[in-house]
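Hey there, shall we discuss this one?
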Amino acid sequence: MSDREDLIISFLKANGWNPSARRPLADDASFRRYERLREGMRTAVLMDAPPPQEDVRPFVAMSRHLVALGYSAPCITAENLKDGLLILEDLGDHTYTRALSETPEREAELYSTAVDLLIDLHGRPAAESIPPGLTTYDVELLNQEALLLPDWFLPAITGGPTTAQIRASYLAAWRDSLTQAANHPPTLVLRDFHIDNLMWLVDRNGNRACGLLDFQDAVAGPAAYDLMSLLEDARRDIAPDLIANMIGRYLAAFPNLNRDAFRTVFAILAAQRHAKVIGIFTRLCVRDAKSAYLLHIPRVWRLLDASLKHPALDAVAAWFAEHVPPNLRITPPSPTRQP
């Protein structure tokens, strides 16, 4: 038995759970692992987030903040911050992904509920929605994320490292647009607000019907980000009419919002996120042998190409035209499939 397993067993016993009550639940794109605990009618979720790769403190802080705001983040019933172990409220198995698969006719209802949650969150004063000391989604952080494409995707398709000159030209191309986006008034950005991280809680009403997962990377940043993340999903095609209706629903709640400025920031952040995701999915394959994420890269390229048509991204579009022309906007090869 490993030292990690000994820690988990001791943690469960100390908090009233029989270690034999564990059943595998899910892994994700990080080093975190989840197991369901079930004894009789009682259930919970064990989060195993081993340090130093993971730090559960941001998750704990944000979970408590969201619960205090009245949202359905999982309550934490036991914690060992040092060793990265948490026992969480079990929100069930009905993710938005599963709900949309089982009841596609409720698509508009599910998306409306998620958008209404964002409307409620973004309608609060920043001092209420943003906890003290939260990381700011500034130009430096946006740049760091965008660099995942030249740092991981380009080497995967060219077979060699990206030069310092190309990296510098990439950052220069993004400078003006990301500065424009970062200068918008901040709100709480959950940062991974998409259907795999949302739960459909049929026994709860209003905003609480939309359960929240995977929010430990939350930042203070532009309001358009989470709406964009929901509607330009790397894992799912969404009809243009539904996207337009959901953006219209959001904008109708904020009649004093500058529509053109909001849509511009939406496009900038969409391009940044799609570039980041292409890099992340490539890294997951190359570094972590998780090649399943490559399936989504063609969709992400389509989304990125569409975003780059916005005039605010002309410099970025020119960089891609020179350094990643259409014939290179491909799915990188999976090392696991190479001879």
